[in-house]
Q: What sequence folds into this?
């Protein structure tokens, strides 16, 4: 299942987490990551929500809902790791390649600093899209930078795990498997 976390949909505050949108063909929409928003219109406040959704060509199972919700959380965590860190005031792009390069440079700087230092990395880009570089001149500075990236990645992963561990699937279960009095 491909999830585009940058494509948000909007709806009213009563938008359901799961909804059958076509009973004839059995098409359902599953939604998550609801965010409330307010908008002023002609002197009154209008409330709405935005969310991420997927369409499923059958009534989804709780396992499918869980897969979608966890996929959204994973994608958000990956994006935060990739582009959410700063070093001082400098944005840091933590692609897998950059993570590997930072790790290797730090490892070599610990063993043979004269062989690698000073070393310059393109850390990322500023808001205008211009490259941001940093020159590391000591093994200590490079180690501190590397440990900061590792700590940042671990904090992002912990946050993602926490979201998964505490996500409440009850509203989905109540819609998909309603309890009926007999």
A:
């Amino acid at each position: 299942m491909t999830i585009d976390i940058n494509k948000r949909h909007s709806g009213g505050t009563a938008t359901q987490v799961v909804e059958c949108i076509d009973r004839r063909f059995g098409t359902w929409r599953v939604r998550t990551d609801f965010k409330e928003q307010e908008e002023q219109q002609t002197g009154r406040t209008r409330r709405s929500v935005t969310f991420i959704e997927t369409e499923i060509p059958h009534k989804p199972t709780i396992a499918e809902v869980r897969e979608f919700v966890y996929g959204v959380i994973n994608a958000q965590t990956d994006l935060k790791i990739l582009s959410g860190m700063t070093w001082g005031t400098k944005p840091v792009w933590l692609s897998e390649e950059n993570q590997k390069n930072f790790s290797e440079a730090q490892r070599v700087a610990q063993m043979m600093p004269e062989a690698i230092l000073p070393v310059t990395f393109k850390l990322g880009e500023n808001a205008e899209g211009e490259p941001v570089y940093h020159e590391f001149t000591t093994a200590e500075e490079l180690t501190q930078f590397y440990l900061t990236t590792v700590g940042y990645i671990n904090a992002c992963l912990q946050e993602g795990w926490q979201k998964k561990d505490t996500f409440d699937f009850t509203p989905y279960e109540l819609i998909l498997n309603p309890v009926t009095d007999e």
In short: The radius of gyration is 23 Å. DSSP finds five helices and eight strands in the chain. Residues 75-169 form one domain.
